[in-house]
Amino acid sequence: MPPLMQNTNTTTKQSERIRVLLFSNSSLKGGLEGGMEMHLKLLARHLNREQFEVFGICKDADPVRKFAKSFSQECDHFAALPTGYQLSSLSKLVKQIRDWRIQVMHMHNGAYLGQNFVLLAARLAGVRSVYVTEHLPPENTIPVVKRAVRDTFTRLIDGVVCVSEKNYHSRSQFLYTPAARTFVVNNGIDMDDFKPIPKQQLAQIRHQQNIPDDAQILGTAVRFEPEKGLTYLIDAMPSIHAACPRAHLLLVGDGSLRGALEQQANSLGVRDYVHFAGFQADPRPYLGLLDLFVLPVPFGSASIALLEAMAMGIPSIISFGGKGEAVVPGESGYWAEPHSSASIAQHVTQIFQDPKLQRSLSEGAYRRIQEHFSAQQAAQKLGAIYRDGLHNHGQRMGSVASITAHNL
């Protein structure tokens, strides 16, 4: 794919701005974007253009093309490049970074793969400050050799950025995570994107999905993959429907488990109350139908879909609760136990049977996102990290130069 390039007019001279590269190693299985891709686009959108010139790079691969197009529209300059381990790929990456005269690079990775390769390219190209956000930190103990390699990588970069407190603790449990060079910056969303959905559009979706007008609707928006815990959510439906006969489940998304989940709903006798909306490029109108958002992921943190639902005033249940998470039990939703359909059913029933509680949680959900999880706040905090990193780098280089001159 030829490099996509885009320039944005700004009122500040180029030479006065910090040149920041946002790098994604996302492979986008099935071409479906997730939270990491949304985070990258929002960060590119909200970095202050009076202080930063924003560059973007992602893989040159068929599943990534749609994301590449939308990501490029948020950047001042953009390129899609091969990121394999061949010498030719390294050479192209180094040349692009050097031609752009990048000062700060922030790598965003779903997992660890490819980080060493990209770090090498950045250093060969003369990038002064390199940060990494590993959106899916390890969940279990890592073999000694692999841990040694990853710990060495951490020592060679300028900082680790974690998207939540939970992300930080998960990473530090299994990897070297230096406190002085590790930053927690909550994932955020653009509150301006969440206007009320027109009633006519909501009615149309309800009709398309064959959902009764008086239904109490719980639902989620997530990829249909094994790690997302959707089997526990469907397993909870018989108990939920027995206690709340108007309860219906709306599943927005797609993936390898689609057929298995439909078969599960059939075998449990709840298929009439479980609705599969398929993948939606813009899930917000579907979220607008929900009375309750449920994210049954056993292990995770700072889900963008969760933040979007809460920004629409939807109380939420998650199964990866912990310090710093968006959901505060009793204020904006509840924490269910991981891998537990019974725990999910208990909390859903509790909320659906108490309208006053549901209204209170709805107000708390919106307030929580507005105050602590906006993309604007995330961009401001990351921008400060980039500036401080360059300043500290300059001080270190100045100290080295001073010592060298004295010795001479």
Q: Topology of this structure?
A:
Layout lengths: L17 E7 L10 H12 L5 E8 L5 H8 L4 E5 L5 H14 L3 E6 L5 H10 L4 E6 L9 H13 L2 E4 L2 H10 L7 E3 L14 H10 L7 E6 L8 H14 L3 E6 L5 H10 L6 E5 L5 H4 L4 E4 L8 H8 L4 E3 L14 E3 L5 H12 L2 H18 L2 H33 L1
Parallel strand pairs: 1-2, 1-4, 2-3, 4-5, 5-6, 6-7, 8-9, 8-11, 9-10, 11-12, 12-13
Order of helices and strands: EHEHEHEHEHEHEHEHEHEHEHEEHHH
- Low-pLDDT windows of residues: 1-12, 397-408
| Major β-sheet profile | 7 strands, parallel
Mean pLDDT: 88
Briefly note the CATH topology name of the largest domain: Rossmann fold
Structure classification: alpha/beta
Q: Give the overall shape.
A: elongated
Number of domains: 2
Overall CATH class of the largest domain: Alpha Beta
Number of strands: 13
Order of strands, main sheet, comes to 3-2-1-4-5-6-7
For the termini, the CA-CA separation is 52 Å
Cα-atom radius of gyration? 23 Å
Helix content range: 40-55%
CATH superfamily of the largest domain: Glycogen Phosphorylase B
What share of residues are in beta strands? 15-25%
Describe this structure in words.
By secondary structure, the chain is an alpha/beta fold. The chain folds into two domains: 205 residues, Rossmann fold; 181 residues, Rossmann fold, CATH 3.40.50.2000. The protein is built from 14 helices and 13 strands. The strands form two sheets. A seven-stranded parallel β-sheet has the order 3-2-1-4-5-6-7, with helices on both faces. Strands 10-9-8-11-12-13 form a six-stranded parallel β-sheet, with helices on both faces. Strand 4, helix 4 and strand 5 form a beta-alpha-beta unit. Helix 8 packs across helix 12. The N and C termini lie far apart (52 Å).
